[in-house]
Amino acid sequence: MNQANNGRKSLDQRISDYRPSKKSLAWSIVISAILTMIFGFTAGGWVTGGSARLMATVAARDAVAELASTECVNRFLGGTDAAQRLTDLKALSSWQRDDFVKDGGWSQFGSEEVAGAAVMCADKLAAMDGVPETTSSAAVEG
């Protein structure tokens, strides 16, 4: 032993001499597992099965509403009086626009209304500057 250390072992020596008991080893494993789970669920992006199912359900519902709203816009703009209807829609307040779309039947598919489609459709229509020009399929293909 070195006299400068007053008989104390160096850190390297103390680490290599350390022999953990089974109890301290078990507690180390338990604490490591708990800390891993805490980190994983808070900062690591882990989710429970229930949360994953909920996120998948919400994503599917939103995707259906997005698709339905796109078809709703196409139906709305497909009529001969689309420009006048668009003007009428824009004259309404934002909270009345989805009722206008629902009442027109553009957001209804079969016998059911797709949740959120009328609101998205009304928002898309309200954001338009005017009725877009239609092109013939021959002009697109040629």
Task: Give a structural overview.
With 142 residues, the protein is mostly helical. It has two domains: 11-42; 49-131, no CATH class. 67% of the residues lie in helices and 3% in strands. The chain is built from seven helices and two strands, in the order αααααββαα. The protein has helices at 11-17, 22-42, 49-78, 82-91, 94-104, 117-127, 137-141, and strands at 108-109, 112-113. The chain has a two-stranded antiparallel sheet. α5 crosses α6. Mean pLDDT is 88; it is low at 135-140.
Topology summary:
Elements: H1 11-17, H2 22-42, H3 49-78, H4 82-91, H5 94-104, E1 108-109, E2 112-113, H6 117-127, H7 137-141
Antiparallel strand pairs: 1-2
Helix pairs in contact: 3-6, 5-6
User: What percent of residues are in strands?
Assistant: under 5%
- What percentage of residues falls in helices of 4 or more residues? 55-70%
Overall mean pLDDT stands at 88
The gross shape turns out to be rod-shaped
Radius of gyration: 33 Å
Q: Any idea how many domains?
A: 2
Termini Cα gap: 92 Å
Query: Spans with pLDDT under 50 lasting ≥5 residues?
Result: 135-140
**Number of alpha- plus pi-helical segments:** 7
Main sheet: strands, sense, barrel: 2 strands, antiparallel
Class by SSE composition? mainly alpha
The overall strand count is 2
Strand order of the largest sheet: 1-2
What key attributes describe this structure?
about 65% helix, 2 domains, disordered C terminus, mainly alpha, two-stranded antiparallel ribbon, about 140 residues
